[in-house]
Design goal:
Helix 6 runs parallel beside helix 7 and helix 13 packs parallel to helix 15. The longest helix is centred in the C-terminal third of the chain and has 23 residues. The protein folds into three domains: 67 residues, Arc Repressor Mutant, subunit A (Orthogonal Bundle); 130 residues, Aspartate Aminotransferase, domain 1; 236 residues, Aspartate Aminotransferase, domain 2 (3-Layer(aba) Sandwich), CATH 3.40.640.10. By secondary structure, the protein is an alpha/beta fold. Strand 8 and strand 9 form a beta hairpin. The strands form five sheets. Strands 5-13-12-11-10-6-7 form a seven-stranded mixed β-sheet, sandwiched between helices. A three-stranded antiparallel β-sheet has the order 1-3-2. It contains 15 helices and 17 strands. The two termini are 45 Å apart.
Length: 453
């Protein structure tokens, strides 16, 4: 097995910290697998041209983060528990000392009885037992018709047969990638992209390539050049409230991207899970270039994450392809959750819950603006997360460690970066993750104090 030797030539700050970050990145990207043995302290020091004490300090910090472990006589091994993996877990609600704003979960109402009422209604109609059976073609048609109604709120007009039901947006993106890509293919993504995309790339053996961005999103010329050169045939983009940067493409940029897609016959998998949150409507790419876009959304960020219902819309899919995707994808969807989701959409409960979520995020964004008026980008008032630029010279990993010691959990830019040269001067905080506006205010006061240090 080839020995892992990190490249620290493009890093800044303390060398030991750069080595820890390189370890975390290599584990996160699958370059270092759980169980892989690392060079000894002395050998690593010789390979990097640094003091043994520097490597010792780095290994000690990596062990504290649960990235590596060691046993006397056996050496140092990768545990595989990079910090980024924790983003797929819920905050520890029982840890009263920490305010965890690292997980992008929606705001939660403590007076939420919708599921309780819906289950009671199903029992009253004596329909719960049938949901334990295989669903009929008519049942699935009802669920897909509800999905089409939900997508119509984004200016789309799909035939229900063109929609594949999924277990959330991550499942939908995975299904789209599996249909359009082969192992070893390149996929274009935004310079900072959500952790789930990194996980899917590792799982499916895909290589992520960065598309540069400005304050309006991905640069059309960069997308055009990538398609024209044959670097990749598929891009995964999040035009609305991009995670983590909060950028929403203005209409002109969306039209420019759509022009590139038509010109180069390129394909975009559009991740629109946050697209329902902004009150100011902007059409998705799927409405501007339907033949070049596979549209993905879910109810997780706008209605209820526990429903685990997502939608994949392909306006160009052949009937046989849709039948195949039904058997490999929709068949995995829980009938009880699909039934509740469809009833909530048809009855207006889903839209009411969306309206509540918008208002909750507006209040939280107002609290953010009042506490940190100059630190975040000019994001929509319904943004579920914020992308905070740190004062010049500060490293996000160091800052997040400091914040955690003060009881605040944030996520550094390195977790989202698709290129190590991008820099690590941002942190993401998730506004919906706080248990209340009051808890968010407490967290933001701590953050404000840390930024002034």
């Amino acid at each position: 097995m080839t020995m892992w030797i990190p490249d620290l030539s493009h890093t800044s700050g303390p060398t030991y910290r750069a080595l820890v970050d390189a370890l975390a990145t290599a584990i996160y990207r699958g370059e270092l697998r759980p169980g892989a043995q690392l060079p000894t302290h002395r050998l690593m020091a010789d390979l990097l041209g640094v003091n043994v004490s520097t490597v010792t300090r780095a290994y000690r910090e990596a062990a504290r983060r649960h990235l590596i472990g060691g046993e006397t006589g056996r050496g140092t091994y990768v545990l595989g528990h990079a910090d980024s993996v924790n983003l797929f877990a819920l905050p520890d609600r029982d840890n009263r000392r920490l305010i965890d704003l690292s997980v992008n979960t929606p705001a939660y109402s403590h007076q939420d009885h919708d599921l309780e009422q819906s289950l009671a209604d199903l029992q009253t109609r004596s329909e719960t037992g049938r949901l334990l059976q295989y669903q009929s073609e008519g049942d699935w048609l009802v669920y897909r018709a509800a999905a089409a109604q939900w997508l119509s709120m984004r200016g789309l007009n799909p035939d229900p047969s063109q929609i594949v039901l999924c277990c959330g947006a991550q499942h939908a993106v995975a299904s789209a990638l599996a249909s359009e890509c082969s192992r070893g293919d390149n996929v274009l993504v935004e310079s900072y992209t959500y952790p789930g995309m990194h996980a899917l790339a590792r799982q499916q053996g895909l290589h992520l390539h960065t598309l540069p961005m400005d304050r309006a999103g991905v640069l059309p010329d960069a997308l055009d050049a990538a398609f024209h050169s044959g670097l990749a045939k598929v891009a995964v983009l999040m035009p609305t409230l991009q995670n983590p940067t909060t950028i929403s493409m203005p209409l002109a940029r969306r039209k420019a991207i759509a022009d590139v897609l038509r010109k180069r016959k390129g394909l975009v998998i559009e991740e629109d899970v946050y697209g329902y949150l902004p009150c100011d409507f902007l059409p998705p790419l799927a409405a501007l270039a339907p033949e070049q876009v596979r549209y993905v959304t879910s109810l997780s960020k706008s209605v209820a994450p526990g429903l685990r219902i997502g939608f994949l819309y392909d306006a160009t899919a052949r009937q046989q392809d849709l039948i195949d995707q039904f058997h490999t994808t929709s068949w995995l969807v829980n009938p009880l959750m699909a039934r509740i989701a469809s009833e909530w959409i048809h009855s207006g409960i889903a839209e009411r819950r969306l309206a509540w979520q918008r208002k909750a995020l507006q209040r939280r964004n107002l609290t953010l603006a009042q506490t940190l008026p100059t630190c975040s980008l000019n994001q929509p008032p319904e943004s579920p997360h914020a992308w905070i630029e740190l004062p010049s010279g500060q490293d996000a990993n160091v800052f997040c460690d400091k914040a955690r010691r003060e009881g605040l959990v944030l996520t550094p830019a390195s977790v989202f970066a698709t290129n190590r040269q991008l820099g690590n001067q941002y942190v993401r905080l998730c506004l919906g993750a706080a248990s209340s506006t009051g808890e968010l205010k407490t967290a933001l006061k701590t953050l404000c104090s840390l930024l002034k240090q």
